[in-house]
Amino acid sequence: MATIDTAGETAGKDTDDRFLVNPYNDWAQAQNIPIYEDFGVDMLACETAPWGFTEAKGALVHLHGRGDYVSVFVHEIPPGGKTRPMGHCFEEIFYVLEGHGATTVTASDGAKHSFEWGPKSLFSVPLNSPYQIFNTSGQEPAKLSSTTNLPMVLKLFHNDEFVFDNPFRFADREGPDLFYQGDGELTPRQPGRHTWETNFIADLERFELKEWEARGKGCSNMMMIMADGTMHAHASEMPVGTYKKGHRHGPDFHVFSVRGEGFSIFWYEGDAEDDFVRFDWKHGWVFAPPDQMFHLHFNKGREPCRYAATAFGSLRYPFSDIKEAGYRGNDISYKEAGGFQMEYPDLPFRCHLEFLIECEKIGVKSQMGEYIDEAPYYEAIEKLKRDGGLKKSA
């Protein structure tokens, strides 16, 4: 995991030269907290530092596949601690990594909405609503991540007062009280487009998902509208012995492991299989596939594997044509017009081979035989064993 110590410097940049200015990068460097840059990051292992912006502790995560609109904050609140009261004109979707606490949100009419959260909670505060986050444990720190569209907002307005000290309130985004109590509203659509609207999900690990077989064997999913925002969220789950179909899309989708252990394989169309990238993950990790890079997610454990994803451009407000096209075509073959998905028979040989190797290691039976002729793969595995490249399972 790579890290950059910003030390609050501008890397020798002449601040009088108004050429190729990046207001978000300037702001990030001025925060005097660690910045992590990598393909993926274990946020539980990220070191944090005192952060004047929140008056708690923090770090920034800038993943290679984040694109131009999105970044991730890591928030650490000490035992019994709290952030300062805040409100800002950028959106955040919080995912709780560890610890217990509460958040209080003040509506435009002065009403207070409070909710208690714990590990694997997901929540979002309506745009520019005043809020404060508390660690309710007197013994353990609380660590949260938040996916934000601050890079886009700062680059668009390049005015700190407008973004961080704006009196305007977006009352239409606040939602009813039930949105702050772990409840919400389901809008049934076709599989893969069912939508849950809320501001707070108490436990994303146990949250009910809906079947989406077109996306993969036994797959389930739920799309989410959080605080009527332009930020997107969804959760997906894979049963034991299965994996999702391959797919590709634009940048900025950040994937958070929620339950179980898995791995993903990434490649660009035309890459040799030796050039593919593999990334293993479990709770605490986040990664972001780069723009238009094929990838697929595998369950490599003995329990159902669940992850959440956040991005800029929601199912309600996709923002860009390519994001809208992605939502429409995320379960249509990339060989067809408007499709973004790679069907099982079209996957490179390495993908299914590595999945079966992981199943072999832990003694789990593959459930994928109805989609793929697995005989050549098992022959390859036996050859690896004979050549000493793979130990036989106990």
Task: Give a quick summary of the entry.
The chain is α+β, with helices and mostly antiparallel strands.
Task: Describe it.
Helices cover 14% and strands 31% of the residues. The protein is α+β, with helices and mostly antiparallel strands and 394 residues long. The protein folds into three domains: 3-177, Jelly Rolls (Sandwich); 181-346, Jelly Rolls (Sandwich); 349-386, no CATH class. A hairpin with a 4-residue loop joins strand 17 and strand 18 (231-238). It has helices at residues 23-29, 150-157, 160-164, 321-329, 349-362, 375-386; strands at 3-4, 35-38, 40-42, 49-51, 56-63, 71-77, 92-98, 101-106, 112-117, 122-123, 131-135, 142-148, 185-187, 195-198, 200-201, 210-211, 220-226, 231-238, 246-247, 254-259, 262-267, 277-281, 285-287, 294-299, 305-312, 341-342. Helix 5 packs across helix 6 (375-386). It is built from six helices and 26 strands.
